[in-house]
Amino acid sequence: MGPEPGEVLAQFDVSGRSAIVTGASSGLGARFARVLAGAGANVYAAARRITLLEEVAADEPRIRPVTCDVIEDGDLQRLVAAATEETGRVDILVNNAGVTVNTRAERETPEEFEHAVRVNLVAVHRLAQLCGVVMLEQGSGVIVNIASMYGLVGRGDIPIGASYPATKGAVVNLTRELAAQWGRKGVRVNALAPGYFPSEMTENGTDDPRFVERLQRRSPLRRMGYAHELDAALLFLCSDASSYVTGVTLPVDGGWTAV
């Protein structure tokens, strides 16, 4: 029927599985690649900056760096081809690459908004589609789209463009739709919605003591997250531990979306 209580942790093992992680050259993406590799997956770590990718892979033989700009369809196709070349499979996709615009909504240019849509939404759909074709053929697979707590609530007084919450909200519903369409064929699709974590994307705000104080005041746990606090959530969604979970967006945000 399933594992005994003492065997539950074994469900988090992803040994031998083929995984793709985008935006893996720094921040949360680099952490995601290392966590999956540490749990036994063969990880194809994708980003534009090959030097940084090589640093991520330096001490972990299970990580393979792949240069990829997610808004270039040819790059996405080559990424999937690299991941399938060895085993013919893609078992896990972590759609992590994303951008934000550090200006208020009324000052965000059409070009900035369009670029965010291409990176945060169009590329997420396209790579899910490319991997989904492989997963549907093999009859199994897991996709984890990295959304945001701001895909679930508005930002209010946080001075940032509207494109980020708009695209992350779209990712939440894209996740639901792909889960609904592909679940019958063995492919699960979920999303992870982080709150504020130290990363390259958030450093402009988190270097400002006033911003950090405001963030702490707003959050029920009164602090930012630590990178390791996403590890278990990621492994849960990527592994057999979540075998009856699909179409879900899991916030890891210190309670931000609860109030």
Verbal overview:
By secondary structure, the protein is an alpha/beta fold. 41% of the residues lie in helices and 15% in strands. The protein has 8 helices and 7 strands, in the order βαβαβαβαβαβαααβ. The chain has a 7-stranded parallel beta sheet, sandwiched between helices. Strand 2, helix 2 and strand 3 form a beta-alpha-beta unit. The mean pLDDT is 93.
Summarize the structure.
The protein has helices at 27-38, 50-57, 73-87, 110-138, 163-182, 203-206, 209-218, 231-238; strands spanning 18-22, 42-47, 63-67, 92-95, 141-146, 187-194, 249-252.
Low-confidence residue ranges = none
Large-scale geometry:
globular
Strand portion: 5-15%
Query: Percent helix among the residues?
Result: 40-55%
Enumerate the strands of the largest sheet in spatial order, edge to edge or round the barrel. 3-2-1-4-5-6-7
The largest sheet is: 7 strands, parallel
Distance between the termini: 39 Å
Mean pLDDT: 93
Total number of β-strand segments?
A: 7
N-to-C series of helices and strands: EHEHEHEHEHEHHHE
Structural class: alpha/beta
How much is the radius of gyration in Å? 18 Å
Helix count equals 8
